[in-house]
Design a protein that fits this description.
The chain is an alpha+beta fold. The protein is built from 16 helices and 24 strands. It has a domain of 247 residues: Nucleotidyltransferase, domain 5 (2-Layer Sandwich). Helix 10 runs antiparallel to helix 12.
């Protein structure tokens, strides 16, 4: 938790960031500076192998506590807030009772893989792209629609209650909006777009997909723009307009002020997510990327994006620390990797549970290749960092192929960006500059920006652009031929990882 004393004469904007492991509240001033931050962790629940759940009531308690603490640290009350925005882990799925507000089941995490059989049935054989033209998404366990279909099929009596409109579905933004406003059932285009149930063109629930999934429209929230006055909060935020909702990666894009076609950002955490703004028309990917809504301002057409989701980046560093014991803290991997000048011919593909973009291969498994007696812990550490850089390169190449866009800069955020060696490796593998902003908390900042715009706290996007400042920048230093030779080796390593799981495993 951090605390910067607020200017009591001013007014501020707050953001709630409901994430996979914690909920945070941050308060920002008019220049986009951090006024205060409070964070509360919540449990992850693992009922069976591959199942991951959350207690929604616990999450709401953490949100309330973080809001109270952020206000206290800033030395202000809710009356000093012009608006609050919500950002959230995206595909996590929840159903609750319309009358009581009590969840009928734990929230099913975006990480959860229990819907494998549901996916196979929906694929009707092997057509994993049968909904991609309408939803922008392939059939995988990742998205909310299949999780909701599983809940309806496996909780006794739930399907009938859903048909009658007695229960409501939402991603975590909907749950928080409901709790904050005392019963408003809504979501925004970015979160709705991650369910597989929204039509990318109409920005409304797709009736034909709903029929095929067996999901009643009566249980679905209203879809609204990302920057929009949803309602007025009660409780600890009494009287504050709830004025924005965005999925976490979309909020980071907004916080990076990537408002124009061709702007791209990448967030580096346990996994990594690259989003490329493609303007006001959706681009259907032919190279393994997801088509998604980037954001929508009230009264304006939506902006779209191509997304490359990478399952394991920082998670590989955690594996080095927690499983192998080669380092004691995540930050030590930079020090260990810096003891060598290259990877010693070693490549690590962290396909711990398959590969996401651009491969979407669920039967891939991790490999370490190129091992010789020369390879030392430093080489392994460097190969681990390079795995993040090479996976980013694969996604950037897919973006270039899908759009013809020549990228000149990658704006980065997230916890891994504190690793300066990794940032240099990114610049070297991509052949473009890498920039880290002064305010690295771009997810919360993006939600705050969108909320402030909706209530006129900030006048327009240009004001927000003027708030963005570069804290550090890295330029490529690697010889082009050497870069491409190493990339060729990386792609060979990836091929070794593919289709590792057999039917009898």
């Amino acid at each position: 938790m951090t605390h910067v004393r607020a200017d009591r004469r001013g007014r501020y904007v707050a953001a709630i960031d409901q994430g996979t492991t914690s909920s945070r509240c941050m308060i920002f001033d008019r220049r986009g500076g951090i006024v205060s931050l409070a964070r509360r962790e919540h449990r992850q629940i693992f009922p069976q192998p591959g199942w991951v759940e959350f207690d929604p009531q616990e999450i709401w308690t953490c949100v309330e506590q973080s809001v109270k603490e952020a206000l206290a640290y800033a030395g202000i009350t809710a009356s000093s807030l012009a608006a609050i925005g919500v950002t959230n882990q995206r595909e996590t799925t929840l159903v609750w009772d319309r009358a009581t507000g009590i969840p009928v089941h734990n929230a099913v995490s975006w990480q959860d893989t229990r819907t494998s059989a549901t996916i196979e049935a929906l694929a009707a054989g092997s057509d994993m792209d049968r909904f991609r033209e309408r939803s922008g998404l392939p059939l995988t366990t990742y998205f909310s629609g299949p999780k909701l279909a599983w809940l309806l099929a496996n909780i006794p009596g739930l399907a009938a209650r859903a048909e009658q409109g007695d229960v409501l579905f939402g991603t975590m933004d909907s749950w928080l909006i409901w709790k904050l406003t005392g019963g408003l059932h809504a979501t925004d285009v970015t979160n709705a777009g991650r369910t597989m149930l929204m039509n990318l063109t109409t920005l409304d629930w797709d009736e034909s997909i709903l029929r095929e999934f067996g999901i009643p429209r009566a249980m679905l929230p209203a879809i609204r723009p990302s920057s929009h006055p949803y309602g007025v909060a009660t409780g600890v935020l009494e009287g504050v307009p709830v004025a924005a909702a965005l999925g976490d990666q979309h909020a980071a894009l907004f916080g990076q002020t990537a408002f124009s076609r061709g702007d791209v950002k990448s967030t580096y955490g346990t996994g990594s997510f690259l989003l490329l703004n493609t303007g006001h028309e959706p681009v259907r990917s032919a190279h393994g990327l997801l088509t998604t809504v980037a954001f929508q301002l009230d009264g304006h057409p939506a902006s779209y994006a191509l997304e490359g989701s990478i399952a394991v980046t920082g998670g590989l560093v955690q594996w080095f620390r927690d499983t192998l014991g080669l380092i004691h803290t995540a930050a030590e991997i930079e020090t260990l990797a810096a003891t060598v000048s290259d990877n010693g011919g070693c490549y690590i593909v962290p396909a711990f549970s398959g590969l996401f973009a651009p491969h979407w291969n669920t039967t891939a498994r991790g490999v370490i290749t190129g091992l010789t007696s020369y390879v030392k812990p430093g080489h392994l550490a460097r190969a681990a960092l390079e795995a993040t850089a090479w996976q980013t390169r694969e996604v950037v190449d897919a973006m270039r192929a899908d759009t013809g866009t020549t990228l000149t800069e990658l704006r980065v955020d997230g916890g891994m960006t504190a690793d300066n060696l990794l940032m240099q490796l990114l610049a070297d593998t991509l052949g473009i500059s890498v920039s880290r902003p002064t305010v690295a908390e771009t997810t919360c900042l993006g939600a705050a920006y969108a909320a402030g715009l909706a209530v006129g706290y900030w006048a327009d996007l240009e004001v927000l652009r003027s708030n963005w400042h570069k804290a550090a920048e890295w330029h490529p230093r690697l010889d082009t031929q050497l870069r491409e030779r190493r990339y060729r080796k990386w792609r060979k390593a990836v091929r070794r990882s593919l289709d590792w799981i057999d039917e009898d495993d």
